Amino acid sequence: MSAEAIIKIENLALSFGGVQALDGVSTKLLLGEIFAIIGPNGAGKTCLLNCISRFYNPQRGQVIHKGEDITRVPTHTIAQRGIARTFQNIELFKGMTVLDNIKLGRHTFLKSGIFSDMIYYGRSLREELKLRKEIEEKIVDLLEIEAIRKKVVGTLPYGLQKRVELARALAMRPEVLLLDEPMAGMNLEETEDMARFIINVNSMWGVSVILVEHDMGVVMDISDRVCVLEFGRKIAEGSPKEIQEDPQVIRAYLGQE
Question: What is the pTM of this model?
Answer without folding.
Answer: 0.88
